[in-house]
Write a structure and sequence with these properties.
Radius of gyration: 20 Å
Number of strands: 7
Strand content: 15-25%
Helix content: 40-55%
Strand order of the largest sheet: 3-4-5
């Protein structure tokens, strides 16, 4: 016996990890059906316009999956990217995302966002694509993130940037070329040089 429409809807939501109503509409699942599944407690609203099955496994990076669904144009950056790459002891209360200077501010109620405005190569270079809980996410590479931390040192603190540089140098022994490239793109090569010299 084939699966019912309700079973198919649940399977699709589970397979996608996190879903938006328009993702489901593309598969013939209406908003009314989604609302019914929420009312029955089989599906839960994770954030504004983002849904998951009630038994969805929550990982440490769950907030990244939520934000990636709600803000598909964003790139995880700064403290959030540092945490993702294991380059900080900080545990940021907000999720940091990079957006183009003219991009609209996202309307996401949870988790809390910190927006950093990037432009040109600083926005487009060094993006890695990964999956978290089945959701594709975009995050800046470890080397790009370290350079970004020096560029935004007034926002996050020079101590955080220096700690990230030290951790990067230990973790990525052959990463100096990448680091130099992103330092040029972010225009912080001169700022970073004394710190590079001190850990060489």
């Amino acid at each position: 016996m084939g699966e019912t429409k309700r079973e198919r809807a649940l399977r699709l939501i589970e397979e996608k990890g996190l879903s938006r109503p328009r993702d489901l509409a593309a598969h013939g699942i209406t908003r009314a059906e989604l609302v019914r599944l929420v009312e029955e407690g089989l599906v839960v609203r994770q954030a504004r316009g983002v849904y998951a099955v009630a038994r969805h496994p929550i990982s440490a990076e769950h907030s990244l999956a939520q934000v990636a669904k709600g803000v598909p144009g964003g790139v995880f950056c700064l403290l959030t990217a540092l945490r993702f790459h294991g380059l900080t002891t900080q545990s940021p209360a907000e999720v940091w995302i990079a957006l183009a200077e003219k991009a609209r501010r996202p309307r996401l109620d949870t988790p809390r966002l910190r927006i950093a405005r990037f432009s040109g190569e600083a926005l487009t270079e060094g993006i890695e694509e990964c999956r978290v809980e089945g959701v594709p996410i975009r995050v800046y590479s470890a080397a790009k993130t370290v350079a970004d931390c020096f560029k935004y040192r007034n926002k996050i603190g020079i101590d955080v940037a220096v700690e990230a540089l030290r951790d990067f140098s230990r973790k990525y022994r052959g990463g100096a070329t990448d680091l130099a490239r992103f330092a040029r793109i972010c225009r912080v090569a001169r700022v970073m040089q004394p710190y590079l010299d001190s850990i060489a």
